[in-house]
């Protein structure tokens, strides 16, 4: 059994660093330490916790360049995106540093003069997080920041592909003065660490971002000890372009939504539904813009689209393209093979498909790659029906300047996040999360701290 994990640069296949797998006994020890630390951290006053979080954020921002470089090395994303992610990750800490001071309770008018009713909010306890490789910094901080702000202690297992960014973030938290046992990381494979987290009585909450099957498993395994769960799972975002839409704008937003991080985000547009009257113009414009995207090593400043994370991702994406083509889709641009199994790097070149239909896998399964299938619709009702036809309900986008059409989409699309003339809706101060099989709970905004607190009700009698 291997006791280290090799972290590879997905652009070259080279080993960036080897990290030690945390032995099971040490994970148990870390859980004990986290539970013990809860007793003191939860008693630190909210203003002090807030100040420590701000210090953590300041240290992260001061290290933007080196954090971004590590992130690009382990995840493959272009450096400019990694820099953006560092700022985005810090913005969650800044937001929850403020929210720490606003965990208000309430008093309730009693039904008799001899009673008083008081409601308080308390941290749930030790929180265990499992995070994915596509946003190694932001997925960690948007869990850690509300947890720590609420007074919970926190332990994270980053994705085995991208542990380095998380490890540095935890070190920076300690340098900022957050107690070592209040925020910890462990390294290992999900299938080994997951059960230790879910079986532990000390862990009171599991927060997870990743695939839907793993989310279901974690939720099931959390039932035995009745843990709180937050699940941010897969998506299959539709991007609807209505007949009246500003086509130039919709093209730019579709580009930003789809090709960021080589299409490996859970809210990436996974399919474009465009009104048939403007389909040709939209497809032509989109394709000519996609042709300008530069594929390459994320460390090179002019790279727009980096490699995909690994061979498994590469094969899945290409299988979806091939399935679509076999069933009649037309490749407007892209679809070229570019991998080296021996070295271990995998590039998927931005691809645009048209003439796609519901029977194709790409219209049902999450792609997690830079491929944009385009389909058409005639009536808005039809667009909604297609959009809602998957088990997912994370993000949906629609482009229209007609307010009736916009409100129709807003009211009928079954998704947790909507972008109306907006392909980039994520923000620390807004609630992010899905419905249906895309998950449970919200991250960001005031909603994002609620999953880390319990409500305690006190009834005082005999007054
Ligand atoms: P992806 O396929 O995008 O890598 P996963 O859901 O497999 O998505 O991975 C997201 C995170 O979940 C990673 O940290 C991974 O280690 C973890 N993970 C994978 N399988 C399991 C499992 N069976 N139990 C707990 N965590 C898991």
Automatic annotation (TrEMBL):
It comes from Thalassobacillus devorans. It holds the Pfam family Aldedh. Keywords: Oxidoreductase. It comes from the Bacteria. Residues 3-457 form the Aldehyde dehydrogenase domain. The gene is gabD. Gene3D superfamilies: Aldehyde Dehydrogenase, Chain A, domain 1, Aldehyde Dehydrogenase, Chain A, domain 2. Belongs to the aldehyde dehydrogenase family. InterPro entries: Ald_DH/histidinol_DH, Ald_DH_C, Ald_DH_CS_CYS, Ald_DH_N, Aldehyde_DH_dom, Aldehyde_DH_NAD(P), Aldehyde_DH_Superfamily. Transmembrane segments: none annotated. This is Aldehyde dehydrogenase. PANTHER family: SUCCINATE-SEMIALDEHYDE DEHYDROGENASE, MITOCHONDRIAL.
């Amino acid at each position: 059994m291997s006791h280290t994990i090799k972290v590879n640069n997905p652009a070259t296949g080279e080993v960036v660093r080897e990290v030690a797998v945390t032995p099971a006994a040490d994970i148990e020890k870390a859980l004990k330490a986290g539970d013990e630390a809860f007793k003191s951290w939860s008693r630190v006053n909210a203003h002090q916790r807030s100040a420590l979080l701000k210090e953590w954020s300041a240290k992260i921002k001061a290290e933007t360049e080196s954090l971004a470089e590590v992130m690009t090395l382990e995840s493959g994303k272009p450096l400019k995106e990694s820099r953006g992610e560092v700022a985005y990750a810090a913005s969650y800490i800044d937001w929850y540093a403020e929210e720490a001071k606003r965990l208000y309770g309430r008093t309730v008018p009693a039904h008799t003069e001899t009673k008083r009713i008081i409601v308080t909010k308390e941290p749930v306890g030790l929180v265990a997080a499992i995070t994915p490789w596509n946003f190694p910094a932001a997925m960690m901080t948007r869990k850690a920041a509300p947890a720590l702000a609420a007074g919970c202690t926190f332990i994270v297992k980053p994705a085995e592909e991208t542990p380095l960014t998380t490890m540095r973030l935890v070190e920076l938290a300690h340098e900022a003065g957050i107690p070592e046992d209040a925020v910890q990381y462990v390294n290992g494979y999900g299938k080994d660490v997951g059960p230790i987290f879910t079986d532990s009585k000390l862990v009171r909450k599991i927060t997870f971002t990743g695939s839907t099957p793993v989310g279901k498993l974690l939720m099931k395994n959390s039932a035995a000890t009745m843990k709180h769960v937050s699940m941010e799972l897969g998506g299959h975002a539709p991007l609807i372009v209505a007949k009246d839409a500003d086509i130039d704008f919709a093209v730019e937003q579709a580009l930003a939504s789809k090709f960021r991080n080589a299409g490996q985000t859970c809210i990436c547009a996974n399919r474009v539904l465009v009104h048939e009257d403007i389909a040709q113009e939209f497809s032509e414009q989109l394709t000519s813009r996609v042709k300008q995207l530069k594929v390459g090593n994320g460390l090179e400043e002019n790279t727009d689209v980096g490699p995909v994370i690994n061979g498994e991702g590469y094969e899945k994406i290409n299988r979806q393209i091939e399935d679509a083509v076999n069933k009649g889709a037309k490749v407007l641009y892209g679809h070229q093979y570019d991998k080296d199994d021996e070295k271990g790097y995998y590039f998927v070149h931005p691809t645009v498909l048209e003439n796609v239909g519901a029977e194709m896998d790409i219209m049902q399964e999450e792609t997690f790659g830079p491929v944009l299938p385009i389909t058409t619709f005639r009536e808005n009702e039809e667009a909604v029906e297609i959009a809602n036809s998957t088990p997912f309900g994370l993000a949906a986008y629609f482009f229209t300047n007609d307010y009736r059409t916009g409100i129709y989409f807003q009211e009928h699309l079954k998704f947790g996040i909507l972008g109306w003339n907006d392909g980039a809706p994520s923000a620390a101060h807004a609630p992010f999360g899905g419905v249906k099989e895309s998950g449970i709970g919200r991250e960001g905004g005031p909603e994002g701290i609620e999953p880390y607190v319990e409500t305690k009700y006190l009834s005082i009698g005999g007054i």
